[in-house]
What we know:
By secondary structure, the chain is mostly helical. Helix content is 77%, strand content 0%. It is built from 20 helices and no strands. The longest helix has 14 residues, at 16-29.
Amino acid sequence: MGHYYLARVYAEMKRFDEAKSHYQTALSIRPHFEPALLDLALIYEIQQEPEKAIRIYNDVLGLNPSNAEAHDRLGQVYIRQKKLSDALNEFQAVEKLTINNSEVRTKIGLIYFEQGRLDEAIAQFVLVLSSQPDNDRVRYYLGTAYEEKKEFDRALEEFRRIAPTSPLYVDCQFIWPTSMKKQNKVDEAILALKEAIKAKPGEADLYRFLASLYEKLNQFEEGIRLLKIAAEIAPKDEKILFNLGALYDKAGDWQEGLRQMRKVLQIDPNHAQALNYIGYTYADKGINLDEAENLIKRALELKPDDGYITDSLGWVYYKKGELEKALTEMEKPTAWPG
């Protein structure tokens, strides 16, 4: 016991090699001491030696097949190794050994979800919610499973039951309006996002998403208005500024679009899309062609396989009258057609 407790102290201090040494000494004296075996396996997990951890957990289960903790930990190791069927077996064992173990049922549901066994995943999540109706995390999983099954009305019903006070509320506001968008129910998605903004007026991404819906309807001015609000909330968010620049360009104000793209580069000088956007705009307008070439080449260094950027470089060469170079770029397999 002295070696065991000393090992635990070393483990708390993150002096894992010394902890292992004392756990092993304790086990040499008492080979079937389950607490020491479990602690030693956990250290192997921490030190990224999963096979050793698996071996120890199986040793524990060989001694005591009813050790729910060993089954649970072994299942988690299998999940990290993407061995979902093995993990499922362990969690099902835990479920049999414990009563109303909602956390284990949730894990089983998530494994079913990853395996595409959606009906079985839904059954597990529903079972958890029957005893924990306020479990927003599991309700979120349930809504996502319905959405994956394309049962959009049932998904929406679950997402709507998650209160604005929940940390998952904002995530829900992206999932089910996206489902509506896929069904071409853009007007309904807009209404849903407007309600979300009323509940969470300080969430910049909600404005960004709503702006994208107005962009789909070619209502660029409304999209710009929303993105400007988002930029006030999150002035350093490069995604918002990039989208704002692109929307200004679509609305016909390409000069303001360029100004927004330069703001993106002030935040992230290696933003390949912004570099390409500025370069392509210059080329399209037939101005600053040398600078356009340099910008696009920088973008291509960052994303060498991006077809849009390759196409932009070809367009610059075309505008400069360097037709052979233009042809070379545009005939590359990565070049974006059109």
